[in-house]
């Protein structure tokens, strides 16, 4: 059962999507839900079908006190590493919010402190707290939308389906066609045993 507010009114939940992908951005969302907000479907985005996530997105956008979504793209990921890029995406999403949160709930066990606002890291928080679950839905749906858009440019990688994750199909396409401008060059794109026979 997802909980409502954790400690304070106007607390923000934040979460990211796309951390383990080979291509595309890491995307974070931050959201403040109104006091007393309830939704029977809302849960960790990974527990919901794509259809349910897409259905929840406009409800969350309409009902939220405020929200923001931010992409950190592959070049920056390669420059600062994926962990720092995840923190940066969450910080930028918080920066862009119309209202300053009183407290920040973060999904996971690590976070770079945000200036002047206390936070708490909650492991599997997207399955425990509504604001984190809501942030996970927004991060996932906005990132999926972006991956579907760049899929049109490079359909051979099938990002519309795999969203840039390291599926067998995605890795086979990398072997055949090489890397694109959207791939994260700092990631090990192919397992070491997949060497080319020359």
Summarize the structure.
The chain has six helices and five strands.
Description:
The protein has 198 residues and is an alpha/beta fold. The chain has a domain at 11-143: Nucleotidyltransferase, domain 5 (2-Layer Sandwich). It is built from 6 helices and 5 strands, in the order E-E-H-E-H-H-E-E-H-H-H. It has helices at 50-63, 74-80, 82-95, 130-151, 159-162, 168-177; strands at 11-17, 26-32, 66-72, 103-107, 119-122. It has a 5-stranded mixed sheet with strand order 3-2-1-4-5, with helices on both faces. Strand 1 (11-17) and strand 2 (26-32) form a beta hairpin. The longest helix has 22 residues, at 130-151. The protein is globular. The protein starts with 10 loop residues before the first strand and ends in a 21-residue tail after the last helix. The relative contact order is 0.23. The model is unreliable at 193-198 (pLDDT under 50). Pfam families: RNase_HII (PF01351). It is found in: Cytoplasm. InterPro entries: RNase_HII, RNase_HII/HIII, RNase_HII/HIII_dom, RNaseH-like_sf, RNaseH_sf. Belongs to the RNase HII family. Its EC number is 3.1.26.4.
Number of helices: 6
Strand order of the largest sheet: 3-2-1-4-5
- Rounded radius of gyration (Å): 17 Å
The CATH first-level class of one domain comes to Alpha Beta
Point out poorly predicted stretches: 193-198
Beta fraction:
15-25%
Shape: globular
> How many β-strand stretches?
5
